[in-house]
Every structure is written in C-alpha cells, then in structure tokens.
C-alpha cells in the first residue's frame, strides 16, 4: 500500500502518499493526445501536428498535467478503497517530486462525521400551550378593516396622543455640533404612533402630547443606524404637534366579509381562528424544536467539516445582504456590518450544520422517507393557510427544482421531529 491514513480530528483525514518509483507514461500519453487535438502549429491543420512535435513544445506543461492527473487518480482510488465520503475538495500539502523517479504528498480530506447520539429517553421539554381568544380574532378583523377605515381628526381638546393615533407634526433635529440637517426635518409630517417608523424613543416621547403642544426630545441614534455620521449620535428633536387623527373603522358586516373573500362574519371568525391556532401551533413547535436541538448539540459533541460551516456562513451572508440592501446599505456599510457580527454568523452557521447532521442521523435511524404525497399534503396545508390556489402553488414548486428540494427537506425535518418527540418527554404547559 502506497499510503497511510492519519486522523486529524473526527471529520478530517490526512492521507500520506509515497511513491518511491514513478511511471507517468500512461498519464503523459493521455495528456499528449488531448493536447494534440487542440493545438495549432504552423504548417499543420488544427489537431494534426505530430505527437513528437507537440511533446517537444509542451513537454514540461504536459508532465505537470500528467502528475496532477496521477495525484488525483491515486487519491480517488484510496478514498474509494477506504470508503471515505469527502466533503468539498481536498487540500494538498508537502508535495515532493523527483521528475520521472518518485513523488510524495499529503492530502487533507474532510469527510462527513459519524454522529453517534446518546440515549434521549430521559430528556424532557416543555411546549407552550396554544390558546386563541376573541381578542386575537378581533385584532385580525381590525387589520382587515383598516383598508376601509376613515382618518378623522380628534376634536376633544383634552385628548392626548397615544398608540394607534396618527400625529401630524413639524419636527427639526439638531446634531451634537449644532447642525440642523434637512434630513432630520419634517413639516406637516404624518406619523402613526407605535409603528416604529422613527428611531427608538421618538414615538414614545410624543405620547401624552396635546394638539398645539411643543416638546424637545433628547434621543440617541442606534449603533447600527445606516447613516455613518449618525451612528450612536446624541441628538435633540424639537417637535410641534399640529393635529391628532384616529382611524374610524366601519362596522363589520356579512357584506364586508364577502368583500374580503369570506361567506359571512361567522365564516370569517371560524376560519381565522383556525388559522391562528395553526400559526401559534407552528410557533410553539418551532420554539420546542430549537430547544431540543440545543440540548442534543450540548449532549453530543462532535467535529464538523469546516467546509460545511463556510458554505452555510456564505448562505447566511447572502440572506442578510438581501435584507440590508432593502434597508439602503451600501457595500462599505455591509462590510462593516459583517465585520462586527462575524462571530455571531459563524456560531449560527456552526449550529445549523450541527443540527442538520443530527437531524440527518435521526432521519436515517427512524427510516424517515418523503414522497410526492407528502409534498401534495404540504401544498394543501399552505394553500389553506395563505388563501392561494392549490394549483398555483403546485406550479410554483414544479418550476423551480431548488425550491422543491428545500420543501422536501423541510418535510423530512418535520417528520423526523415527529418521531423524535416520541423518544423524549414533552409536557404541554
């Protein structure tokens, strides 16, 4: 055997190759033939130059390519024989080549770890009890009715600004150096109190104001604010409340319910209550699943391939980039953001890789399989919750293979969690 294997860690192998005699005749001939087909040489049509001339002109290059092919072939043979399941591309180290005589090198190969989970039968968890009351349904009804609401002035002179009101105001911000930039100024500006549209403390500071009242607010811009010069800046806002407005919602009737796509008020209440139960049930399950994964990771330590963590980190960055772009971040601002939160992103990526490997191990242990009928059932469930037509969703998942695979993976996880929760103790409280 021309190689030795050394364990670097639980998911990394070092394969040390040593060939004291080296014959690259086969590889050189293969590279020579490939080169002959593509080379252009004066006096010959493309691909028709004699092999001897091609070898004379491209000899060193062909020898290097032949050596590379030899190295790749020997590595593949070794990994196949040892039944190694590689993750990503190997790294080569300590290459020593004596032309035409010998070669030695090390290949660092990351593999999927063997995850052996401890007994889970004694683990216990609590799942939040799902409850839906009339106030929850009332909140959804008001959201629907908002599109039909009329904005009216609050005429009571004693009325004070509170959450849900809309303030019509003038405001001017002043920076620490006394500047009053136009970007911090507004006239007859409409602001819904409680919407979170302004920086923390602004809307809260306005609460309790009366029409015609003026007030100064001493505030601090968030450290992650998109404008570099205002990050963490202490500023003063002078505010004048010109008017208080409130939304007047129409009475909810069967006619309005039909406009919103329901048969009646009763139908609206019933279906939205069912949807709320499903939403809260999903939220409670997600919280429970997160706690289970955190416990399993704590209880079962194992090495993870760095390449998987890097790939997941890149995926997370791309996802964050989309959100930051929508918030108006430019490239320098994004670079600063990722530098600040680099550790958090890496830890999140590591957690996701570890939990993915654990769930994959459990799925195999429980013989979890997914089928087209599972996908159809999930589409039916999604359609019921979103109000979208089933056929439209089916078309969506059939036209993009990546999205379809992601959904099938999510279904596999759901089925795995269902089996997993039978192995541990779950109390609803």
Structure description:
- The protein is of the alpha+beta class and 429 residues long.
- The chain has 3 domains: 3-110, Alpha-Beta Plaits, CATH 3.30.70; 150-248, Chitinase A, domain 3 (Roll), CATH 3.10.50.40; 263-428, Orthogonal Bundle (Trigger factor, domain 2).
- It is 48% helix and 19% strand.
- The protein is built from 12 helices and 11 strands.
- A hairpin with a 2-residue loop joins strand 1 (3-9) and strand 2 (12-19).
- The chain is elongated and about 100 Å long.
- The model has no long low-confidence stretch (mean pLDDT 92).
Radius of gyration: 33 Å
Per DSSP, the total helix count is: 12
Percentage of residues in helical conformation: 40-55%
Number of domains: 3
**CATH C-level class of the largest domain:** Mainly Alpha
Distance between the termini: 61 Å
Mean of pLDDT: 92
Brief account:
The protein is of the alpha+beta class and about 425 residues long. The protein has helices spanning about 25-40, 50-80, 135-145, 200-205, 255-260, 265-300, 305-325, 330-340, 340-365, 370-385, 390-400, 400-425, and strands spanning about 5-10, 10-20, 90-100, 100-110, 125, 150-155, 165-175, 185-190, 215-220, 235-250, 425-429.
